[in-house]
Amino acid sequence: MYGLITFYLSTLAILAPLLACAGIGLYWGVRKLPVSNDFITILVTSFSMPALIFQTLYSTQLDDSTLLNVGLSTFLVLAFAGAVFALVLYLMKLPVRSLWLVTAFPNSGNMGLPLTYLAFGETGLSAAVIFFAICSFLQNSIFVRVLPSANGLPIWRSPILLASLAALVMRWLEIPLPHWLLESAKLVGSMAVPLMLLSLGLALTRIPSGSLRTGSFLAALRLVLGLLCAWVVTLAMGLPDTISGIIMLQMSMPCAVTAYMFTARYTNHAGDAAGAVVVSTIAFLVLSPIVLLLVGASIPGLSD
């Protein structure tokens, strides 16, 4: 019993900064205090997150082959998991086009980035921003078109995509950048994670309870199959343990809030999607010590 308590307390110490930021957002939403959603969204997606991605990718100590492996494995695991999710939804006679997006894409931003950084350090953050950038680009431009009546967003206007490409090109061409520019990008980018966690807390207070039965099933798909699909792909690719663990952790994240927003806007299954987000988020927080142990995170008390 003592070992189990230590096991969870060790993980709670890792999650504490995340829970604190999300908790403030939760408190803000419950109290209905004034806040501009557009301000936070635009600040994060158009400025802070692109700055974080640019500075991290340009300055990372990971070699180019590792970055390429992370990018390739991200594409492969999303494609493989997406096909598995679609097949399961079809076999369960659920609307594939309406519910696929909320199961296929993990919350790799609000929860994935900070948790991967806390669990795997700078290496984790560097790999996680690549995963997030690819996820964000695919979800917001290409795969949103899967939803009925959705036209998608302009593919090549994504600040996150442009920042990723610029950083990688400058890195590969070894173009030197002034110290003040990188420090400015680092400072602006440092706002991204706290703001995303605050917005996650706010969003959870505004999501209706919806259909918890279907939502719970979708949440189970997201958490279990996401992790299993990542394990299969990383094992098949023969990736190093740390990179495999990072990809597996990202794919085990709860349903993305943005996927719920798209589903609510373009389909009549907002309740099911809302239930999936709420249940998967709560379930992940409860199961996070086990997940971190499975992916090989170096946390005192987990591997002793």
CATH fold title:
Na+/H+ antiporter like fold
**Low confidence ranges:** none
- Distance between the ends: 15 Å
Q: Got a strand count?
A: 0
Total individual domains: 1
The overall pLDDT, averaged over residues, is 86
Helix tally equals 12
Largest sheet: none
Structural class: mainly alpha
The percent range for helix content is over 70%
Oligomerization:
single chain
CATH class: Mainly Alpha
Helix and strand sequence = HHHHHHHHHHHH
Can you offer a commentary on this structure?
This protein is mainly alpha-helical. The chain has one domain (10-294): Na+/H+ antiporter like fold (Up-down Bundle). It has twelve helices and no strands. The protein has helices at residues 2-30, 37-59, 64-91, 96-104, 108-142, 159-172, 179-189, 192-206, 212-237, 241-251, 257-266, 270-294. Helix 2 (37-59) packs antiparallel against helix 8 (192-206). The longest helix has 35 residues, at 108-142. It is globular. The mean pLDDT is 86. InterPro entries: Mem_transp_PIN-like. It holds the Pfam family Mem_trans. It is found in: Membrane.
Structure, briefly:
The chain crosses the membrane at residues 6-27, 39-58, 70-92, 155-173, 185-205, 217-237, 243-262, 274-299. The chain is an all-alpha fold and 304 residues long.
Write the layout of secondary structure elements.
Elements: H1 2-30, H2 37-59, H3 64-91, H4 96-104, H5 108-142, H6 159-172, H7 179-189, H8 192-206, H9 212-237, H10 241-251, H11 257-266, H12 270-294
Helix pairs in contact: 1-8, 2-5, 2-6, 2-7, 2-8, 3-4, 3-5, 3-9, 4-9, 4-11, 5-8, 5-10, 9-10, 9-12, 11-12
Keywords: Cell membrane, Membrane, Transmembrane, Transmembrane helix, Transport
Protein name: AEC family transporter
Organism: Paracandidimonas soli
